[in-house]
Amino acid sequence: MPLRLDVVTxxxxxxxxxxxxxxGRARREGLLDVHVHDLRDWTHDRHRTVDDSPYGGGAGMxxxxxxxxxxxDEICSSVPGRTPRLVVPGPGGEVFSQxxxxxxxxxxxxxxxxxxxxxxxDERVYDEFAARYPLSVLSLGDYVLNGGEVAVLAxxxxxxxxxxxxxxxxxxxxxxxxxxxxxxxxVYTKPASWRGHEVPEVLLSGHHGRIAAWRQEQRLARTAQxxxxxxxxxxxxxxxxx
Length: 242
Ligand code: 6GU
Fold this sequence. Notes:
By secondary structure, the chain is an alpha/beta fold. It contains nine helices and nine strands.
């Protein structure tokens, strides 16, 4: 069964890249079944209004609950016998990591992405649907985007490449899983000398043991330099392991 993805947004054209490249291939190969919906299709006024000013005052606009309620009622009940997980992208969520991506790819068969805009969606929409469906709030990291659409693109790409049956992913995923929480080593190809920059000698040596040791050193040095947070976790982990 393909992984079904529904995306509800007021900017369906933002999701056009879902047809491209890796994601497009996953769709063509029948591993992904993507449905993008315009939230305004569930409004009933001539201006197709989806937002209003916040109760209690304050800046900006809040998405009204009624269009979300009708859209999610219809979409979430559209496949008889199946229940989706709702995914709400937002800076206030659990951080989306490789582990979360892997869990979604391996354990879920239907995700409904709820893309908020403006200052957010009326909280009662979450109260209503969290009581009826599993729901995850997921953040890309500690910065603020204008809406969930770009986050959906990032998350769906991270998930799609992990789907069982995605051709070409077997070898590269095994390699990735072997990096054990460290950053990747640097890679080089021909020519051996370019603009005065040389490929490290060890890589030309043909000595597989020395090459593997050099790559591991590079991983450790890079991780310590760029991601001290990952390095601390790696060191804690290697102490815990015998
Ligand atoms: Cl998932 N959504 C929005 N709106 N901003 C974000 C984010 C998500 N992740 C980081 N910033």
